């Protein structure tokens, strides 16, 4: 049995049908005997729509109020997905970031996680429930105010929770099959990587690969969290991110093999081994603290893709 943190991005929960599919997937992991903690992003383009709404009532939205508006997107998606899991007969409970113990710095719209105190999440796991945590948000440690973490912040929520809970793996479940050498939506020659080091992923994220938020990569490197980026829509394995290249295990291509992560059994990607990017050094990614993608001004898309 493993402790798995699963994060589902906005496209993966973009409709009631997709929420039900995610719920079934979460229940399957639970039925396989794993402890599962889930982080869900806001449905589809909700964050854009909320930004737009704020821009329509104020030319310069008050950052504190804007954060309260935006956090609602993730709270709705998490409560709905928890509801869908409960409807499948497995107890689930959703938490806001502040309730889950995600503590941050003060800066509205661009706060950093400084600590995670996941007492309520552990209690829920002990009760046999599946806890859901609203991504992209927390509570300022100094002021107690609700904050958001910058665009793409749910990745950081999931990886920070995985570190705090000493999870075996953090699965980032998204709308592509894993991390590619370039954006597979715009570059037909992009190749799927079976493994990336933190350092290589940091470079990709810094160059704009949205599949993992830059800050989340640094958080994973700092705490040594093993991250598996994979599709929400099928069960094939994707890309594992860790400190150093994983030795190739002899197994038929494409098959999933059992491997041990932090001492417990977790079905990770098949051999195929490491495929660091050209010029990428193994390591923990060091470097200066990254900037999160800040909140885009209302009425712009912030350069993010349209909802799927
Ligand atoms: N190198 C890359 N590998 C994989 N995906 C990439 C890469 N560069 C950009 N992307 C884009 O990242 C998107 C996934 O990130 P994002 O939209 O934030 O997902 P989610 O909504 O699941 O959080 C993909 O749809 C893809 O177009
Ligand atoms: N909903 C927020 C947070 C987030 O992480 O979203 P996603 O996981 O869909 O990239 C955003 O749009 O930035």
Automatic annotation (TrEMBL):
Catalytic reaction annotation: L-aspartate + ATP = 4-phospho-L-aspartate + ADP
Low complexity composition bias: residue spans: 289-298
Xref: PROSITE patterns: ASPARTOKINASE
Domain Aspartate/glutamate/uridylate kinase: 3-231
Domain of life of the native organism: Bacteria
Transmembrane segments annotated in the record for this chain: none
Gene Ontology molecular function: aspartate kinase activity
Enzyme class of the recorded protein, top EC level: transferase
Keywords tagged on the record: ATP-binding, Kinase, Nucleotide-binding, Transferase
Pfam families from the UniProt entry: AA_kinase
EC number(s) given by UniProt: 2.7.2.4
Chain positions covered by the region annotation Disordered: 265-308
Homology family: Belongs to the aspartokinase family.
Protein's recorded name: aspartate kinase
Organism: Streptomyces ramulosus
């Amino acid at each position: 049995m493993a402790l798995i943190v699963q994060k589902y991005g906005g496209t993966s929960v973009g409709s009631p049908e997709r929420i039900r599919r995610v719920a079934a997937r979460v229940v399957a992991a639970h039925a396989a005997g794993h402890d599962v903690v889930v982080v869900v992003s806001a449905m589809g383009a909700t964050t854009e729509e909320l930004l737009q709404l704020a821009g329509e009532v104020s030319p310069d939205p008050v950052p504190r109020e804007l954060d309260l508006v935006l956090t609602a997107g993730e709270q709705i998606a998490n409560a709905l997905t928890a509801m869908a899991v409960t409807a499948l007969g497995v107890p689930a409970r959703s938490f806001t970031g502040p309730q889950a113990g995600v503590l941050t710095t003060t800066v509205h719209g661009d706060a950093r996680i400084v600590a995670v105190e996941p007492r309520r999440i552990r209690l829920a796991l002990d009760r046999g429930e599946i806890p859901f945590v609203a991504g992209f948000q927390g509570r300022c440690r100094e002021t107690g105010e609700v904050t958001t973490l910058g665009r793409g912040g749910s990745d950081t929520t999931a990886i920070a929770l995985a570190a705090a809970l000493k999870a075996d793996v953090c699965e980032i479940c998204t709308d592509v099959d894993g991390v590619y050498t370039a954006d597979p939506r715009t570059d037909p020659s992009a190749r799927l990587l079976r493994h990336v080091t933190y350092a290589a992923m940091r470079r990709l994220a810094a160059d704009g690969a949205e599949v993992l938020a830059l800050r989340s990569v640094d958080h994973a490197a700092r705490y040594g969290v093993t991250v598996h980026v994979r599709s929400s829509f099928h069960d094939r394995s994707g890309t594992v991110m860790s400190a150093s290249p994983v030795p190739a295990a002899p197994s038929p291509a494409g098959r999933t093999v059992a491997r041990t992560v932090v001492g417990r059994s977790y079905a990770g990607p098949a051999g195929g081994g490491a495929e660091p990017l050209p010029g990428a050094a193994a390591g923990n990614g060091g470097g200066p603290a990254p900037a999160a993608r800040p909140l885009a001004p209302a009425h712009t898309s912030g350069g993010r893709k349209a909802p799927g």
